[in-house]
Amino acid sequence: MPRAHARWRRGPRYTAAAMFNPRSIKHCRACGAPAQYAVPADDNRERATCTACGTIHYENPLNVVGTVPVWEDRVLLCRRNIEPRHGFWTLPAGFMELGESTAQGALRETIEEAGANVEMQELFTVLNVVRVGQVHFFYRARMLDTRLAPGPETIEAQLFGEAEIPWEQIAFRTVKETLQRYFDDRRSGQFGIHCADIG
Ligand code: ZN
Questions:
Q1: DSSP symbol at 15
Q2: What is the band of 24 on the pLDDT scale with cuts at 50, 70, 90?
Q3: Band of residue 199 on the pLDDT scale cut at 50, 70, 90
Q4: Cα dist. 104→11, 59, 113, 180 in Å?
Q5: How far is the centre of ligand 1, averaged over its atoms, from the C-alpha of 55 (Å)?
Q6: Which of 106, 131, 148, 153 would staple 65 via disulfide (CB 3.0–4.6 Å)?
Q7: pLDDT in tens, 167-187
Q8: How far is the CA of 11 from the centre of ligand 1 (A)?
């Protein structure tokens, strides 16, 4: 499962190796010379360091941002048209881009993957997926209408009541955890913010 998270939705630069293998950087991004892993002065862990220009390439966790789009009592899921987990269902989500906030990224992904017209609501889950070096943030979102226009990464987008959720065909553990907490909170009548570590 963690390997599935490693390539949430984009190309090879998000492979598990590129993201999480601590020795994955072979060449300097600044000058192209070979990089070597070593502990820089005043640091406490190995970093890819250029053997020519000395540039240190820091590797840090990536943020995945998405929404729980809701219309009346139903939740919007997207069926993935890309690997990993092609054909499985997910909440709209993807890697955060530079220049946007977590909420802006979540909204963008919701538009890109489902073409849904939503009003962003509160942050709902913060899920650490330490083994693949990711943090997933899901916001609740209110659908303003039921018009959908799935993008190329989505086979179909569909609304599901709680009893209809295809639990065995959910693409990622963070999505499953978020959906379970959503329905639990809805039953209790109060939505919180849930932080958890996904093993
Ligand atoms: Zn270099």
A1: S
A2: confident
A3: confident
A4: 22, 23, 14, 24
A5: 5
A6: 106
A7: 999 999 999 999 999 999 999
A8: 24
**pTM, to two decimals:** 0.86
pLDDT tens per residue, range 39-50: 999 999 999 999
Q: Rounded to the nearest whole angstrom, what is the distance from the C-alpha of residue 3 to the centroid of ligand 1?
A: 30
Architecture of domain 19-59: Single Sheet (2.20)
Q: Where are the beta strands (DSSP E) in the chain?
A: 35-38, 47-50, 56-57, 62-71, 74-80, 89-90, 93-95, 118-129, 134-143, 154-160, 194-197
Distance 56 CA to ligand 1 centre (A): 8
The residue extents of the domains of the chain are: 19-59, 62-197
Q: Cα–Cα distances in Å, from 136 out to 100, 103, 139, 173?
A: 15, 12, 10, 11
The domain covering 62-197 belongs, at the CATH homologous superfamily level, to Nucleoside Triphosphate Pyrophosphohydrolase (3.90.79.10)
